Amino acid sequence: MTIEMLTKIFLALVLGGALGMERQYHDKPAGFATNCLICLGAMLFTVLSLVMGAAGGDPGRIAAQIVTGVGFIGAGSILRDGNKISGLTTAANVWIVAAIGMAVGYGEYLWASACAAAILIVQLVLRRTLIWIEQMRHYDTLHIICTPHWSVVEDITKHIENQHIRILKRDVTKQDNLFHVCIVAAFTVREFQTVTKDLLENPDVQSLYQ
Question: How far is residue 184 from each of residues 9, 118, 154, 169, 188, measured CA to CA in Å?
């Protein structure tokens, strides 16, 4: 086994493992071992495609199937819970790990290392900026269905305002013997979560949605 081949195996494991550790640290489905195997497998398939090309075959046949085949692995990490979809970042991570493995297989070590470093910066460093974004207020709309009493509507309004949230608009309609309250206000992410949790615990609130 040549030094070049050992270098490719080592680099595929290191880069795939580094990205996998980040996913495992955040308790995601595709962790350290999965990303190591994907990167190493993509590298090996790419090397085999080069060998096939040198033997007179189509050098792009195997490599082209990596891009398609790795999508099935990524799709397995995507989960849907109601209107919430999780696992898209992990699926994208699987996809780019395969690309990094292919770059290693083609001998583009600088590209592979630079892309792996860029992904780690995005995942570990820029992720922290989300904390600042969550502290910023943004307009959101609450649709609340409650018992048809004005006292209930006033209690809901007062509860929101007691959280130091400014209500911009409030509309109340009556349908099916229930009040439908539409409230537009400026929330931070944490304030929105707190308010919705408190309102759902209110026995007079039948349902709540955005």
Answer: 56, 39, 15, 5, 13
Q: What is the pLDDT of residue 27?
A: 72
Domain 136-209 = CATH 3.40.50.10490:
no
CA atoms in the 13 A half-sphere facing the CB of 33? 1
The pTM for the full model equals 0.56
Here the tokens at position 20 are: 């996998």
Task: Give the tens place of pLDDT for each residue, 43-72.
Answer: 888 888 887 777 776 767 777 777 777 777
Do residues 181 and 153 lie in contact, with contact meaning Cβ atoms separated by under 8 Å? yes
Please give the residue that has the higher pLDDT: either 148 or 68: 148
- 81, 98, 204: which is closest to 151 by C-alpha? 204
Angle subtended at Cα 30 by Cα 67 and Cα 48, rounded to the nearest 5 degrees? 35
What are the sequence ranges of the domains in the chain?
3-131, 136-209
In angstroms, the CA 125 to CA 104 distance is 25
| Residue among 14, 10, 65, 66 nearest 35 (CA) | 14
pLDDT tens profile 75-129: 776 766 555 666 777 778 888 888 888 888 888 888 888 888 888 887 777 666 6
Rounded to whole angstroms, the Cα distance separating 194 from 139 reads 16
